[in-house]
Amino acid sequence: MQTTLMIYDGTASADSDVPRTGGVPLAPAGFTWPMCGCFCGGPLQFFAHLPVEDGVLSVFLCQNDPGACEFWDESSGANRVYLFPREGLQPVAVPETGVTLLPTTSAIRTQVVTVDPEDDDHDDDDELVPDAYDLARSGWKREPEERFGKQREVLGSLGGSPSYLEDDRLPACPSCAGTMEFAAHLEEGISWQTAMNLGGQLGYVFVCRACREGAFLTD
């Protein structure tokens, strides 16, 4: 069972075209900073720049008044996911007001991890059997005789399937009404200085590649 983990890899330049959380978004010319469509109406906070095979996923959530705007709900208007083409991207002008940027830009490197489910020590009577992402994250860099790995280094994963998310929560594309494809998990971060505020939850990024639109939700 293989999972492509996203691993914290130090800091990065704020406008670098590398996998990262934080910094400033790179977008096509003419793109304007997205605003919250839930309650506050303020600018969204930029969370992640994720180059993928067919472009760049750009993730924004509302953090102007955490808990007031429903950033965890894909249909609330308090988050946005874009799939931009890879060419012609440029830094976007940052609004002067609102909570728009993370304190630190964190570089990401990818690491393919192979896990054998038979090696997991879960109780056979448990209702939930750990899935590929859960196993890969919990076992990341675990040493012999060590009870815990270094899960905080894991900033999420690319591709695969959404960990423990029920089928009835898979979002539909607002343009074509088709079920969106799972694209990435996002974790809060390695420390409070770099963390994204996800309310302690795991984030899920979805995309409709045909319409180049995305969605975000948490568990």
TrEMBL record:
InterPro entries: YwqG-like_sf. SUPFAM superfamilies: Hypothetical protein YwqG (SSF103032). This is YwqG family protein. It comes from Streptomyces virginiae (Streptomyces cinnamonensis).
